[in-house]
Amino acid sequence: MALLKVKFDQMKRVKLAQGLWLMNWLSVLAGIVIFSLGLFLKIELRKRSEVMNNSESHFVPNSLIGMGILSCVFNSLAGKICYDALDPAKYAKWKPWLKPYLAVCVLFNIALLLVTLCCFLMRGSLESTLAHGLKNGMKYYRDTDTPGRCFMKKTIDMLQIEFKCCGNNGFRDWFEIQWISNRYLDFSSKEVKDRIKSNVDGRYLVDGVPFSCCNPSSPRPCIQYQLTNNSAHYSYDHQTEELNLWVNGCRAALLNYYSSLMNSMGAVALLVWLFEVTITIGLRYLHTALESVSNPEDPECESEGWLLEKSVSETWKAFLESLKKLGKSNQVEAEGADAGQAPEAG
């Protein structure tokens, strides 16, 4: 028995075709929106690719761009089919291709749903990517004279200013790396020598941060050196006083920024997916309603449309049987090829 059977007369078929034509062209616009969102996200990720450890983060924007292009192509074609469905002569050329096209539409909807889920679930991989990328970026902050790394200081400084953050997890991350280039150190100074000797790796570590960590909203002039030395500054206690530095780490700031972007894009993609599913269901009803017209010479006769020709369980069983038959036919062909090769070898 057919699933969700609906009766159609000529007027209902015409209205269904016209409504689907309009919805398909609206979906073309939605595909352009998806494409634009993916392109925007890709540009935003490329802006800060220096502080990202790998290219896995580009999977979501690339997928959104691909889904946007496919949406425009499929819905343009579906709009043409719905327009030609009003004319029996024009519809005849689409008739053999409509069922395969519906199968492709179902696969497209599944792919779009997976991309939508990726938009919501990418936070974990993005967090590890940013953690390693920012750590490496801070390590190369001092290499202003090294080719390929000379831009890293500007990148980190602009990042900390734009996102109002400091370090990877916080400002203390700068205490653990040498962020001042040897070019600007006076090695004849006793203080510099003592600091380098006191470190196992021979690095010049200070309890200070770059200028880009300073919070301009603070009423006190920025204290960026000797942050843990209370005696170095007047009326200062680093444990109780609110420091005039950005408190948040850049990893959390960037993660929140990109997560909010991808959640918004995921919500838009989810709405587009629901719209695409509705169109696919409508196309299925239009296809079956036109196929079941009892008298093609009488366009005003009634017909029936349905979502599935059989029940869900019967459809699933038929699908599994077709897969088994396909597997057996491939096995027989492989055995036939092996039997043909044996006499040649003899």
TrEMBL record:
Q: Name one GO cellular component term.
A: plasma membrane
Keywords for the protein's UniProt record, in alphabetical order: Cell adhesion, Disulfide bond, Glycoprotein, Membrane, Sensory transduction, Transmembrane, Transmembrane helix, Vision
Its biological function? Essential for retina photoreceptor outer segment disk morphogenesis, may also play a role with ROM1 in the maintenance of outer segment disk structure. Required for the maintenance of retinal outer nuclear layer thickness. Required for the correct development and organization of the photoreceptor inner segment.
Q: Where are the transmembrane segments?
A: 20-41, 62-81, 101-122
Task: Give the family per the record.
Answer: Belongs to the PRPH2/ROM1 family.
Q: How does it sit in the membrane?
A: Multi-pass membrane protein
> Which source organism?
Mustela putorius furo
Which Pfam families does the protein's record reference?
Answer: Tetraspanin (PF00335)
Its assembly, as annotated, is: Homodimer; disulfide-linked. Forms a homotetramer. Forms a heterotetramer with ROM1. Homotetramer and heterotetramer core complexes go on to form higher order complexes by formation of intermolecular disulfide bonds. Interacts with MREG. Interacts with STX3. Interacts with SNAP25.
Q: Gene encoding this chain?
A: PRPH2
Report the subcellular localization: Membrane; Photoreceptor inner segment
Source domain of life is Eukaryota
UniProt KW Iron keyword: no
Give GO BP annotations, semicolon-separated.
cell adhesion; detection of light stimulus involved in visual perception; photoreceptor cell outer segment organization; protein heterooligomerization; protein homooligomerization; retina development in camera-type eye
Protein's name according to its UniProt entry: Peripherin-2
Q: Which InterPro entries match?
A: Peripherin/rom-1 (IPR000830), Peripherin/rom-1_CS (IPR018498), Peripherin_LEL (IPR042026), Tetraspanin/Peripherin (IPR018499), Tetraspanin_EC2_sf (IPR008952)
Does rRNA-binding appear among the keywords? no
Which GO molecular function annotations are given, in alphabetical order?
A: protein homodimerization activity
